[in-house]
Amino acid sequence: MFRKFTLLLTLCVALLATACGVAIKYSLSGASIPPDAKTFSVAYFPNNATMVSPILSSTFTEALVDIFSRRTRLTQVEEGGDFAFEGEIVNYTSTTASVSSDDFALLNRLTITVKVRFTNAIDESQSWSKTFSAYENYDSTLLLTEAEGTLIPEIVDKLVNDIFMASASNW
Q: What are phi and psi for residue 73, nearest 5 degrees?
């Protein structure tokens, strides 16, 4: 009896959504991509920060392409996608995050900040330019060069998830 009710309720919701002409397509990834959007493009994000990591630009750009390839039905194009991303890495800094009672650094913090310009060619009102920042702490006994191989992918993952949610979920 409960299964029939659940099935009937699911059918009613599906029919209602179809009948109302829902303009946004929702998915389990949290994305709500307009049905007319077919492509996305990601320009290379140069590292224009004062301090530069050689792997950061390519790691970030590839991660942004990857999240849209995996979580949406959009096809990647070189430029001019229905969803288009461009920007730059503007900050890459390591600072002290935690100090002991005798002024000895316990933790350091690597922070990465990215300026992103998102163009939604389907609905220009959804286009934006925003700055995203994320960080990870690491043990102060490590040099940044020893820690960044682990830290950069973790921070980049946070950044691209934030950018994905801002551009593809209308939240």
A: -95, 5
